[in-house]
Amino acid sequence: MTRIILKKGREESLRRFHPWVFSGAIAQVVGEPAEGDVVGVFAYDGSFLAYGHYQIGSIAVRVLSFSGEDVLGPDFWTAMISRALKVREAAGLASNPLTNCFRLVHGEGDGLPGLIIDWYDGVCVMQAHSVGMFRAKAAICDALRTVFGDRLKAVYDKSSGTAPFKAGLDLVDGYLFKADGFSDDEQVVLENGNRFLVNWTEGQKTGFFLDQRENRALVGSCSKGRTVLNLFCYTGGFSVYALNNGALRVDSVDSSRKAVEMVGRNMELNGFDKDRHSDICADAIDFLRDVPEDKYDLMIVDPPAFAKHRGALNNALRAYQRLNAAAISKVAPGGLVFTFSCSQVVDKEAFALAVFSAAAQTGRSVRILDRLNQPADHAVNIYHPEGEYLKGLLLYVE
For residue 1, is pLDDT > 90? Predict the structure, then answer.
């Protein structure tokens, strides 16, 4: 196994269990590791620190273990997935009759950096964000079969859009396992009793944005008697919750024709009257610009990540400011605005400042009723605060 020797004094972050080793901290590489290989990381004095996946880039090693356990053995993956499942059981998700979809593995939050696995009522959809995880996908699939047994219907690898494309990998999405008789690429799942059709082959991410489950429930609790605008609606998650909790009317807007078609299917699936809902294929920002003032008294503003890397941060903050200024200026008096950012490089303070600037620009009186974040199945490792990527604000606008 290749040995990664750190520069003197650069081991402190690992001794505090931060799961990344940056390339600038490395003094010597003993061996010739290929990208994705498991390597050992050692301090300058030769003491062992961690095992992890080697990769090319500013983050040179993503840590899998801070102990001497056999990270190359088949039992490693079974043990780690079992540990992740116990977290979901502790959060009340793994056996909830009203919710049968959740995130099973959340990268660094579950000690498996570079790996995402979402559970859709027996179907595991996997995304590898690193070469090491991509190369381990067969072993991960075997571990899932061991942990879940007959409960597992299928394992689908959807890494073509997430694994490093420059690494020369065979990035073709497909099934790693199918139980006898399983043939579907989509199925209906339950979330807090609401029904959603999830298509993991054609949908964004793994098919559904599971990280907004608790925030969708909060929208539902605030929707009775209100007229709702759901911007960047994707397949209509917030819209379903609003209508199921007494919203007078909901308009769902997204620029993706496929997403808007799925919104319509989810409306039918939940039995809603067509006169209470419209699904609109349009650019959300352009649509908001033309919205009459006071038409909506509840708005959801949940855009895609405006900044995927730190170099785009300033432009992203300006975009959040413009978008939120438009929403705050148009919502009816006494209205609510749920606004979000899923950009990891935009921290809570920066996002709040952008929304503050937007509110000041409108001149309206705005109060923060709640600060919103990701749910327990999108676990944040206390030693890796960077994992807290989803942030939001619930605003009351006079």
Answer: no
Stretch among 158-162, 342-346, 354-358, 374-378 having the lowest mean pLDDT: 342-346
What is the per-residue pLDDT for 311?
A: 80
Contacts of 26 (CB under 8 A, 6+ apart): 4, 5, 6, 7, 60
CATH architecture assigned to 3-65: Roll (2.30)
CATH of 209-397 among 3.40.50.150, 1.10.3720.10, 3.40.1620.10, 1.10.10.10? 3.40.50.150
**Residue 342: active-site member:** yes
Active site residue: 101, 141, 222, 342, which one? 342
